[in-house]
Amino acid sequence: MLKLQDTVDKCRLQVDGKVMKPGGDLVVTKAAVEPIWYLP
Predict the structure, then answer these.
(1) Which of 7, 11, 19, 34 is most buried as measured by Cβ atoms within 10 A of its Cβ?
(2) Distance between CA atoms of 3 and 23, rounded to whole angstroms?
(3) What is the reported pTM?
(4) From residue 11, how far is each of 5, 29, 30 by CA, in Å?
(5) Angle CA(34)–CA(38)–CA(39) in degrees, nearest 5?
(6) What is the reported pLDDT for 1?
(7) Mind giving me the DSSP string for the chain?
(8) Sign of CA dihedral 7, 22, 24, 6
(9) Domain that holds residue 18
(10) Would the pLDDT of 36 be above 80?
(11) Of the candidates 30, 27, 25, which has an alpha carbon nearest to the alpha carbon of residue 4?
């Protein structure tokens, strides 16, 4: 993403190799859990 690369260039973010990869790629996982109180 252009904004991520721009912030790396301005030294506001650092590429650590774990979460932020060289080239601006991110490694993320997102999960959502909804409680089910009843089943129709």
Answers:
(1) 7
(2) 12
(3) 0.50
(4) 10, 25, 26
(5) 95
(6) 67
(7) -HHHHHHHHTTSS---SSSB-TTS-B--------------
(8) positive
(9) 1-40
(10) no
(11) 25
